[in-house]
Amino acid sequence: MAFLTGLWTKPAAAPAAAPVQATVPGAAGPASKQAEPANPGANPAAMTAPAVGAAPAPGPIPEMAKFNDLFKAKPVDPNAVKRPTLADPILAPLNQQEFQQHVANANFAAAIPAELLNKAAAGDATALGQAINQASQAAFAAGTQLTHGLVEHGSRTAAERLDGTLGVRLRNQQISMQNVDNPVLQHPAVAPLVGIVKAQIANQNPQATPQEVLAATTEYFTNMVGAFQAPAKAQETAAMAADKSKSNFKFLLDDGV
């Protein structure tokens, strides 16, 4: 009956299974080590600040190629003759030492007759007065003549300088008074920019007429708008070219067919 005993007794408990160690795909090393995230870029330790440097140079813009050097300063020719302007002194600086030397060499008594000088030296009060008066008259005449020469020289120099800049002043006045025909460029928010560009074109092209400056200014802003619209037009053309299989014949008209 030994076999009946096994029917009524509980079987011995099976040994406990070892706990399954949770692992993360791609993780290596002991279980105590923190698992790395699946995306290395999300690891804060791996994050680095982006390098700060100069911005990439803009690519060429065909629409604005004509005006590439508009706001570049022209090189100064060291051998060019400087033309004086009205802001420069009319007369050369006065050398006080040389002026005092010329004054010391002046002899206003030379105009006084010797006879009158002898009477004044002998004690004749009337002759002395006449001698002093004649010397003063000679000094006054010399001073008046010097002043007249200085005024004449200064007036002629100023007139020549003004005459040399008169044409430029009239041209700049005409350019500033001319208005563009486009109403957008006349808007108060845009008109100051138009004035800056117009003045820069006039300075960079001193031989251009006011009409040529105005035409170049309008062309500048027209080309700028065209440069802004060029990427969108290129994308539209590419989209229509890829859609040729559909009933869309607009690309044929845009291609000039």
Please tell me about this protein's structure.
This protein has 257 residues and is mainly α. Among the domains are: 93-177, no CATH class; 181-257, no CATH class. Helix content is 51%, strand content 0%. It has seven helices and no strands. α3 (114-121) crosses α4, α4 runs parallel beside α6 (210-242) and α5 (191-204) crosses α6. The protein is rod-shaped and about 125 Å long. The protein starts with a helix and ends with a helix. 4% of the residues are buried.
Rg measurement, Å: 49 Å
Q: Could you state the oligomeric state of the chains shown?
A: single chain
Helix content: 40-55%
Shape: rod-shaped
- Which residues sit in consecutive blocks of at least 5 with pLDDT less than 50? 1-8
Order of secondary-structure elements: HHHHHHH
Q: In percent, how much strand structure appears in the residues? A: under 5%
Number of helices: 7
Q: Mean pLDDT across all residues, rounded? A: 78
The number of distinct β-strands equals 0
**What is the terminal separation in angstroms?**
109 Å
Could you give a short account of the major beta sheet?
A: none
Structural class: mainly alpha
In short:
With 257 residues, this protein is mostly helical.
Summarize the SSE layout with pairings.
Blueprint: H1 2-8, H2 96-105, H3 114-121, H4 125-177, H5 191-204, H6 210-242, H7 250-254
How would you describe this structure in keywords?
257 residues; mainly alpha; 7 helices; rod-shaped
